[in-house]
# Entry
Amino acid sequence: MTTSVLLSLLPQVILNGLLLGAIYALSACGLNLIVGVMNIVNMAHGEQLMIGAFITYGLFVLLGSTSVLLLLAALPITFVVGAAMQRYLLEPMMNSPQVGTLLLTFGVSVFLSAAGLALVSANYRMVPMFTGAVLLGDLAFPRSRLVTAAFAFVLTAAIYLFLRLHRLGKAIRATAQNPDAAKACGINVKRIRVLAFGLGSAMAGAAGALVSTSYSFNPDIGTVFILKTFAAIVLGGMGSFIGGLVGALLLGTSESVSALFWTAQGSELTAYVILVVVLLVRPSGLMGARR
# Structure
């Protein structure tokens, strides 16, 4: 392609990147919520995304429906899975070295991925809920990308407002800032940690539901998206909810733009080159607190 053609495609490519970043953001903000409250890096976060994708696909096959309500079905299930994981596996280890919880969540990740392969095979699936494209002037966007991006932004904004305005959300933020002070103020820190982990897992499950409508997936999808999620939260700032959002949007945009001027494989490399450069300049990420 000539330079003029590439430049004419740039606005659409940037918007496509932002739409992709919206899905990254939902997963990244969920993981950053867990990191911020419990200082736990949940290696099984990608498998929660995988569970959400398969729940959506299963209901699509079972009910034969393409209702947008299918995208909500994974939320309560992945919330319960995450809350149970925190309550019965991680809570007894909260005072142990961080490497212990890291290894435990890695073990859960391997177990869920292997279980998925054993139960449903490695075949790729997809939920064709939203077909066609929307024209915006000279730009054309797949309807699936627009719907899933809108859903992701609304859900991310709702969780953010919950954390800012609701009593339980304020309790989560207080626990993240100082668990001992929160306990002294009468907050049940253990229950708040269970709630926060459940919310973070539900956001991953919702991201999986959105992924299932735009991309083909199999039980290994969690491995792919956990790498993107880690990149987004490190880029934006570990433990920062807004940082996860910003990092995810930048990651999605950089991947999309570099794919236009380079190759799809090169776009993967470009995203992580940007990540390394940002960390060299600001190790805590763009919006993380300096240590």
In short: The longest helix spans residues 3-38. The domain at 3-281 is CATH 1.10.3470 (ABC transporter involved in vitamin B12 uptake, BtuC). Residues 18 and 284 are 23 Å apart (CA to CA). The radius of gyration is 19 Å.
